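In this supplementary section we document a worked example of the pipeline. Step one takes a protein sequence of length 337 as its only input; no multiple sequence alignment statistics are reported here. Step two produces a three-dimensional model, which step three serialises into structure tokens for compact storage. The input and output of this example are shown verbatim.
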Amino acid sequence: MSESRNHQRMALYLQDSHDLRDGLGFVRYAEQRGFEAVWQAESRLVRDAIVPMAAYAAVTERLKVGSGVINNWTRNIGLLAATFLTLDDLAPNRVICGIGAWWDPLAKNVGIDRRKPLTAMRETVQTLRRLLNMERVTFHGEFVHVDGIELDVVHGRREPRKVPIMIGATGDQMMEMTGEIADGCVMNYCVPPEYNDKALELLEKGARKAGRTLDDIDRPQLIVCSVATTHEEAIDNTRGLLCQYLAQQPHIAKASGVRIEVVSEIQSILGWPATKEQINKAKHLVPEELIHQITASGTPDEARRKVQEYVKRGCTCPILYPVGGDVRLLVDTFAQN
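The serialised model returned by step three reads:
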């Protein structure tokens, strides 16, 4: 048995490239094969995370269900707390709140001014934690203003809820603050394994501020994973995905270390939303070297070896983002039983 199958924590990441009802089958299958969790994306204006999370929670018994990640700008703090209370009612002690600072130009295009993102995130996380702890909260910050509110549970459990709060940090300051205030960090995808070295240093620096150690900070990591029977098919599937990400999410391109000339040329071809025709026209601009550097793409053995590189550099639980049509092949490749 390979090392990657020897009781390794493993999670599945789902976004929008499949029928929503098919996703229910994927998560049930992942649970059967020993996966620990499923994380639902909320990024472009396509699917919200909460509806699929509720569906996944309803059709599984042990699988943890996380938001990977929602933003801290568009849900009022009272609604945010009530939402995760509701999910925890549906799947007690199986829900994870992954939250991030969002990104431009999308946030700006829907009227959100992401000023002082560190302050906004700190206020959100600390107030959310107090509300889920069933406290009565009054807080007046720059972004969060609440007067004597508490979760109003008439029917159901009134005890504090165990919902880990994980920040999807990208910038250095957000990463350090995550180590200080969060239960964990949803580590970046589309980055090389050595990216983790600095991220762990920043998390540890933040943890020390709160009297904690790096071991107190869970570090699940999104990893783009394309598994196919042939190396060439896996690479081609990933090339299309990276093409779209590099054009539309500049923070990912920056973290990936991609040359600005490559990004600019891709952006000149892709519209928003990008069409399949535009992606096919531009995807040849994504170099294969980059695909090998920042994703786990290839045959099952190749994908397993690459994922282990992230684990060796501090990832506590790979969150595998399946690229291509065969999600069950990916689950089988990383099955834990």
